[in-house]
Amino acid sequence: MTLPAGAATYNPVAPKVNCPWLFIAGTEDRKTPMADSAAAVRAARPRQRRQLLAVKCDHLGAMEVLTENAYGDAYVRA
Fold first, then answer.
1. pLDDT, tens digit, for every residue of 13-46?
2. Which residues contact 66 (CB under 8 A, 6 or more apart)?
3. 35, 40, 46, 68: least buried by Cβ within 10 Å?
4. What angle do CA 61, 15, 22 make, to 5 degrees?
5. Side-chain-side CA neighbours of residue 14 (13 Å)
6. What Rg value do the Cα atoms of the chain yield, rounded?
7. What span, in angstroms and rounded, lies between the C-alpha atoms of 17 and 39?
8. How far apart are CA 29 and CA 20, in angstroms?
């Protein structure tokens, strides 16, 4: 993921987050490589729920791809 320079201080917070995380990554995204999102999912502790949803799109195209009848309706089902 492309993060700000101070992002190194974010890591101590991640282990404390207990709600599920859903990473939506575009397979054609050059700004936020899917490998980075996959690494964040793999880094989860056993009790943390993290999931990666790969979508064939670029950086900001997921909502368009995940729209069938209404904006983002397929995203909700994913």
1. 777 888 898 888 999 998 888 888 888 888 888 8
2. 55, 72, 73, 74, 75, 78
3. 46
4. 25
5. 14
6. 14
7. 17
8. 23
